[in-house]
Amino acid sequence: DAGVTQSPTHLIKTRGQQVTLRCSPKSGHDTVSWYQQALGQGPQFIFQYYEEEERQRGNFPDRFSGHQFPNYSSELNVNALLLGDSALYLCASSFRGGSPLHFGNGTRLTVT
Amino acid sequence: GENVEQHPSTLSVQEGDSAVIKCTYSDSASNYFPWYKQELGKRPQLIIDIRSNVGEKKDQRIAVTLNKTAKHFSLHITETQPEDSAVYFCAATVNFGNEKLTFGTGTRLTIIP
After folding, report:
1. DSSP run (H or E) holding B20
2. With an 8 Å Cβ cutoff, are B99 and A58 in contact?
3. What is the mean pLDDT of residues A76-94?
4. Using the beta-carbon criterion (under 8 Å), do A42 and B43 form an inter-chain contact?
5. Residue A55 buriedness (CB in 10 A; 0-12 / 13-18 / 19+)
6. Is the distance from CB of A44 to CB of A36 less than 8 angstroms?
7. Is A7 exposed, middle or buried (0-12, 13-18, 19+ CB in 10 A)?
8. Per-residue b/e over B80-101, b at no fewer than 16 CB within 10 Å?
9. Cα–Cα distance between B79 and B37 in angstroms, integer?
């Protein structure tokens, strides 16, 4: 039973560029949430997708957007990258919120 | 919105001793409190969680206590082992299943052999 998988594992981008991160939820899960974890900090909620719609959003600018596909996988897009966007981006999945969150290993994004 | 404070930021204990990590939350409506363990370069893993209708929950060497009146909850690890060394995060959410978790800033626990 595959857990939450994320790709790529590492990414280096230049300020001003755009990036897309991908996530496949754990088998049987239909809800995907994205978190940003800065170095030495706890994860911060970006947004949650369920039934291909954004259901909740944290305090992140519109440069952060996402998508969920019919197979429940999800993408996180960040436009106009800033140096401060450098962080570990974690994807987490669950079944209709009824189970605890299961996290992926994350994508380490470095913006130079 | 919810705010979660976590203390201490670092903790070193002798192997075999107990470790306690404390968190406070601001939103009295919060009703679900998970704890995650994150080893270096790995994903956060749920180790124990508690709902607001329960005051204490145990799972082998790990226990969590909740004081709703004081709005704080604690993680207790007994008989610590070297593999317990990691960063531990507490979190809170207003509605179980809401999944909009607010995390604390983490505690780096080091077990001294």
Report:
1. strand B19-25
2. no
3. 97
4. no
5. middle
6. yes
7. middle
8. beeebbbbbbbbbbbebebbbb
9. 17
Query: How far, in Å, CA of B93 to CA of B99, rounded?
Result: 7
Strands A107-111 and A31-37: unpaired
In this structure, how many other beta carbons lie within 10 angstroms of the beta carbon of residue A47? 20
CA B104 to chain centre: 9
Write phi, then psi, for A59 (nearest 5 degrees). -85, 65
- A80 near A18, Cβ under 8 Å? yes
pLDDT tens for chain B, residues 1 to 113: 889 999 999 999 999 999 999 999 999 999 999 999 999 888 999 999 999 888 999 999 999 999 999 999 999 999 999 999 999 999 999 876 667 899 999 999 999 99
Which residue in B has a C-alpha nearest to residue A58's C-alpha? B100
